[in-house]
């Protein structure tokens, strides 16, 4: 059994990251995230708002066999999650994907574009969630102007984010439990319905809606993309590795465990929806969960699910903005974004400048497009990031340890000051079988082929903005190095 002072039993620690003194440097973040907090972070971000809307759409695509695309998408998500587990335990730094690419290829422009794709995906997702929060679920409870409400929502999320990582993650625990309670209610309502003679269990193997032959595979491919979107969110946890106590031990457990638990929840809920509702009804109306409540003998107020959906959306937005702000902070410390974004609030030790900047950009984004447009751009940008993350695993193994990676190993060993982690270097990191990152990279390519041309155009525009910012940053650095420059 671990001693009382180990990371497994102590909920909050004040170890400064990146500084070996007692007080920490002005730009260091505190290691305050333990394994349970990290698990709830992953679980809360993966569950998010998608499951409350996408199950009905999946049933419309493939009929009653909703579990099939959900299982396939789970396996694909675990491939990339394994690559994240290996790289994060090797390089536990804010910045995640950008840091991995820089270690693997040593090309700042590529590192910047991958990091910017991740940042852009996070901010478009947050803008989409803010739009969803101000939409029909809230309007059923109280009539408010949607755009101002979405802006106020993002500001409130920023305030929670700035207060502290442990405070944010404790709020996430409460909201994740609310989300899980809602899913449990759906399953219980379905069981009660089936027990009373309603529903039809045989629908769970029905693929008739998807058609036959080529049409079947096309429908299944589209459904897998939708289901994969339901698992998106696990990657955000990589950006709080710098605030995690003993990430080499906690991160693989929390990441892979969180994705697996979410997958199990999705599978059970998918079976419940399939058995309770025919495909046409699940895909219409106010949403499959509210439809189940309407046909089940279990008496649950319809307004309760509006509240649960709002909690799910709020939780997803909070965790996404935590990721985005830590990513911007990490890129700034790597010199990929302007250095002022690495500023840390003196008392809270949270990346205040990055929180303010990412919130402002998310506000601008929510004014530029609707929910579907922002969501589709998010998926494609993340597939770009996931492809490079899987490739980085292979490259970093093949090329061995560069001087930069060697210094990272030394720094990480000093940063880990617990008994459980003391003296361990980067060589003691999680490792996946080589075939998994190969399959992970290939899966990203396959899923990208299912995207529409319009999504490619939006993603390309985001990356072009990133290139422009990189050019401005490069010119600024060059001017500052020029003798006699003002």
TrEMBL record:
Membrane disposition: Multi-pass membrane protein
Protein name: Amino acid transporter
Transmembrane portions of the chain: 37-55, 67-88, 109-135, 147-165, 177-195, 215-234, 255-277, 303-329, 350-367, 373-396, 430-449, 455-472
Gene Ontology CC: one annotated term: plasma membrane
GO molecular function: transmembrane transporter activity
Organism this protein belongs to: Terracoccus luteus
Top-level taxon of origin: Bacteria
Region (Disordered): 1-28, 405-426
Bias (Basic and acidic residues) ranges: 10-22
Subcellular location: Cell membrane
Keywords recorded for this protein, A-Z: Cell membrane, Membrane, Transmembrane, Transmembrane helix
Any single Pfam family the record assigns to this protein: AA_permease_2
Signal peptide, first to last residue: none
């Amino acid at each position: 059994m671990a001693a009382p002072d180990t990371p497994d039993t102590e909920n909050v620690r004040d170890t400064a990251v990146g500084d070996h003194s007692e007080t920490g440097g002005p730009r260091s973040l505190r290691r305050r995230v333990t394994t349970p907090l990290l698990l709830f972070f992953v679980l809360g971000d993966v569950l998010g708002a998608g499951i409350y809307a996408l199950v009905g759409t999946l049933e419309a695509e493939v009929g009653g066999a909703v579990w099939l695309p959900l299982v396939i998408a789970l396996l694909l998500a675990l491939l990339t999650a394994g690559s994240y587990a290996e790289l994060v335990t090797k390089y536990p730094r804010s910045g995640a994907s950008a840091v991995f690419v820089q270690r693997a290829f040593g090309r700042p422009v590529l590192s910047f574009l991958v990091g910017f794709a991740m940042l852009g995906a996070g901010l478009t997702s947050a803008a989409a969630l803010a739009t969803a929060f101000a939409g029909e679920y809230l309007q059923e409870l109280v009539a408010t102007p949607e755009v101002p409400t979405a802006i106020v929502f993002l500001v409130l999320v920023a305030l929670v984010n700035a207060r502290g990582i442990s405070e944010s993650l404790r709020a996430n625990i409460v909201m994740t439990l609310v989300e899980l309670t809602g899913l449990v209610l759906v399953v219980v309502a379905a069981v009660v319905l089936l027990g009373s003679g309603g529903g039809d269990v045989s629908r769970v193997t029905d693929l008739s809606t998807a058609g036959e032959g080529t049409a079947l595979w096309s429908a299944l491919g589209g459904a897998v993309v939708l289901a994969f979107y339901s698992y998106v969110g696990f990657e955000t946890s990589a950006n709080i590795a710098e605030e995690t106590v003993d990430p080499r031990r906690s991160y693989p457990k929390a990441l892979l465990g969180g994705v697996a638990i979410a997958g199990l929840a999705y599978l059970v809920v998918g079976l419940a929806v399939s058995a309770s509702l025919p495909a046409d009804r699940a895909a219409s109306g106010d949403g499959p969960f509210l439809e189940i409540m309407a046909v089940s003998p279990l008496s649950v107020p319809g307004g309760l699910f509006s509240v649960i959906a709002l909690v799910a959306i709020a939780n997803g937005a909070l965790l996404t903005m935590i990721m985005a702000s830590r990513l911007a902070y990490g890129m700034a410390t790597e010199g990929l974004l302007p250095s002022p974004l690495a500023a840390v609030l003196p008392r809270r030790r949270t990346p205040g400048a990055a929180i303010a900047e990412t919130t402002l950009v998310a506000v601008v984004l929510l004014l530029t497009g609707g929910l579907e447009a922002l969501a589709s751009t998010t998926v494609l940008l993340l597939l770009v990031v996931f492809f490079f993350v899987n490739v980085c695993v292979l490259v970093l193994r093949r090329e061995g340890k560069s001087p930069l990676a060697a210094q990272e190993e030394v720094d990480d060993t000093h940063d880990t000051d617990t008994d459980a982690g003391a003296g361990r270097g980067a060589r003691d990191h999680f490792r996946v079988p080589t075939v998994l990152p190969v399959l992970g990279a290939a899966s990203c390519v396959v899923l990208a082929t299912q995207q529409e041309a319009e999504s490619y155009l939006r993603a390309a525009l985001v990356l072009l903005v990133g290139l422009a910012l990189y050019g401005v940053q490069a010119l600024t650095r060059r001017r500052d190095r020029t003798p006699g420059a003002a």
